[in-house]
Amino acid sequence: MKPLNVAVLGCGVVGSQVVRLLTEQAGDLEARVGAPVRLVGVGVRRIDAPRDVEVPAGLLTTDPAALVARGDLDVVVEVIGGIEPARSLILSALENGASVVTANKALLADDGPTLFEAAEKAGRDLFYEAAVAGAIPILRPLRESLAGDRVTRVIGIVNGTTNFILDKMDTTGAGFEEALEEAQALGYAEADPTADVEGFDAAAKAAILASLAFHSRVTAAEVHREGITDITAADIASASQMGSVVKLLAIAELVPPTGSGQQATDSADGGDGTEGVSVRVHPAMIPRSHPLASVREAFNAVFVESDAAGQLMFYGPGAGGSPTASAVLGDLVTVGRNRLGETRGAGESAYADRVVLPMGETRTRYHIAVDVDDRAGVLAEIAGSFAEEDVSIQTLRQEGRGADAQLVIVTHDATDSQLSRTVERLRGLSCVREVSSVMRVEGMAD
Amino acid sequence: MKPLNVAVLGCGVVGSQVVRLLTEQAGDLEARVGAPVRLVGVGVRRIDAPRDVEVPAGLLTTDPAALVARGDLDVVVEVIGGIEPARSLILSALENGASVVTANKALLADDGPTLFEAAEKAGRDLFYEAAVAGAIPILRPLRESLAGDRVTRVIGIVNGTTNFILDKMDTTGAGFEEALEEAQALGYAEADPTADVEGFDAAAKAAILASLAFHSRVTAAEVHREGITDITAADIASASQMGSVVKLLAIAELVPPTGSGQQATDSADGGDGTEGVSVRVHPAMIPRSHPLASVREAFNAVFVESDAAGQLMFYGPGAGGSPTASAVLGDLVTVGRNRLGETRGAGESAYADRVVLPMGETRTRYHIAVDVDDRAGVLAEIAGSFAEEDVSIQTLRQEGRGADAQLVIVTHDATDSQLSRTVERLRGLSCVREVSSVMRVEGMAD
Q: Which residues of B are less than 8 Å from A29 in CB distance?
């Protein structure tokens, strides 16, 4: 039987594991694909770089453009990452008749539609399970298993570095800097941790999840993004006191149109009566009883709510060479079978074409800690600031007395604009010494 | 565009929700399948039975055999359950050119190969995501997402009734009977709870999971099965004392061949040097830190270990009309797309053809509580019984003194035969008043 010709672009942490599995699992892969899977080339930057896997020298090439253009490839696996040359290579691979499996979240979140259109035009598959949450099968379930259901919300812990840092802060009482240093020492954070701790990585994944869950096109630039660098040990302690834990969450949710239910006072959808989507990455407190709260260390998990299925959660390692390679190989088997059957998997569907709402119009809840003067009338003044912005308070408790007096307030659902205006008002009150913590709250009954 | 003709067999708890979703989600389904999805018939026992959904009278029929044989069906959804007439109807549907989506775990675990061969022969799809763990996408990830990986173990909480009962016993200290009554009162257990509490339901699901995970044919009859009716409040308390919780687990694992590693002393694979599988359902203690320990009430979860991906967990509602219907519809979309594309999904693969090992040869660990005389030499006698069967003890602790003296022992890994022989020896010792609890231990480092 004609073998399936596979080329791998990139032979770093993930690529070397892909090459290893292609070799070690050859027998099983052949049984599952229905034809031998043959590695015909590996694009690398330097032929003689040290690698975790032995690649026959004849397969290595520093000319990936020539590799993807050779015309006899069935599948190209792109694990270089970044925008260029990855994009040009993927486009060339598709034009030259190959299907593509990629783990490139940045490229997909930045310029997915260009790739999807090229795949559509070429009549080839473009699969990318490995781009979100590593080994955890989440894109395929969203795309296929829930295809007859209506997903209403996706909440993910999709960045292992920040989860490791926040988990350390929670379990040891460490501050952000200290926890970051430990993460770096253990290899969980890079020397320049910006992409992780500022939420860029999570925002790219949020865009991909939102696009799939809501059959719309959402790019990373449309995702509201806040990182975890401002989270203090006091924030974590405050969360702990209310039985909660702080996580960096990637949230994508359907927002009802104006005039229905909770959104009655906002023009949430641009006024045309269809549902919009809110897509955002920010730290938030979630109750310890929530399934996401028990996601420890560098693990990832994605929590999905849908009309019929209810609440589902998918949990596992979110990064690492070998878990990511597992996801790549899973896609490779499907794409390979499709090639042999001269068919394609379900392409991208953006038929719902939902509008991404500005963060200000998104309804959230706040946990606010305010250091106040301990005197009569303060509570009324504070409560007044909330009332003026039409924000209703769920709980208010006083901590400490005298110079340590602090009010801790958890609000009900309100637009993010209302809430941030309320915080501004609080800062202007003479009885307020400092607004010491402002954090969103998720996963709690309103 | 030619619509996709769908017939539904059964309009009970699940069927009525399938019919509801087919109607309510019609627009989305058309966008996702690529053609309108048209409900053309619903097979029921009684036309005038009360149902949760309104079905146009013209679509109802009490002659399902004629419905599946009409020849213009693209997809038949079978949600009647049980062996007959479900099997005959599915076979007839396939012979008449329809693909089939079913939630029928009993039939699949009992006689799956007959159905798979009929689907293969007809060139049609037979999908059954809803048969295991309700709405949780687990079969598709096993079959497709992990297709390039090597699954080594699947541990599932796949029966909501028993999980509800054990969770109640854990949180309230109730005995089995009391917890069962509460489950029945709340609708989580049936009037005759045998299929659930004796582990038959879980065993069918274990057979399906093992077949998929290990590309072999495993039937329910080959699954070692123990239920939860003998679990006492004392067992739960004893588990709690060692930081564990008792769950009814469906376990399917690869067992290394004779001569390699742990299996060195056993003929685990029939002697031909390939890996065998152990498939079993029994209650077991698992540490509270294990992800499965936090699965509460009637929820289900499946924990999967594989070489490359590591540890994954899938969590969600394991039963109920609407969650199960979500899984059915997910399959329906894929099967529908395949019909339009004149292709098929990956069929069943049993190429690995692994041998199911007898329970006696399976390596497990035991937690044993023994009421003993409180006198010198007892410990040596007890330890001697373990030594004679070559079972090594991990921990041994004494509880109480005098007439209340009890020894609690946790063993290392040994064959189930060795362990049960050890328990027999203990029962024969004069210093042993009673072996008060014997339970397997899972998910703990050996």
A: 148
